[in-house]
Amino acid sequence: MPWQGHTLIEHIVAQLQAVSDDVLVITGREKRYLELLDVPIFADEIANIGPMGGLYTGLKHARHEYSLVVACDMPLLDRAVIDLLTSELDSSVRAVVPEVQAHRVPTLAIYHKECLFAIERLVSQECTSIQALLDSVPIKIVAETKLRTVDPTLRSFTNINTLADWEKLC
Length: 170
Known about the structure:
Blueprint: E1 2-3, E2 6-7, H1 8-17, E3 25-26, E4 41-42, H2 51-61, E5 66-70, H3 79-87, E6 95-100, E7 103-104, E8 108-112, H4 115-124, H5 130-136, E9 139-142, H6 144-150, H7 163-169
Parallel strand pairs: 3-4, 6-9
Antiparallel strand pairs: 1-2, 5-8, 6-7, 6-8
Helix pairs in contact: 2-4
């Protein structure tokens, strides 16, 4: 999708490159965006399990112990939210997860590589829910009130799921 003179995926990758030297794109079962992006691109290593497959593949290929995971449809991500999530990291947790409207947001969160083992265990039990993953590892929740101190309208959590969403934001 076009976004501010580029594509949506190019915009999000550029935002993340300003934060990290290890930006990866996970594309599902087929590698896409090769002609658009100058970052490593990986297809899901465990097919047909939805976002859990992307999370698994990303963590497996990440160079760092902790990884910021961002859905490809969240173009209004604010650096202050990333900084807040990062500031909440400590060695006792395997994920730092925002909570918005009483729901955990696993698609804009930080995960530790040790989550790979929990994902493998859950998938072996035919469970592919990222929420189940969050229930199975030590996590730190970042409350909506705290998120609003750096992103008062929670714009960072806006995602584009439909053409109407995209038209509204453009």
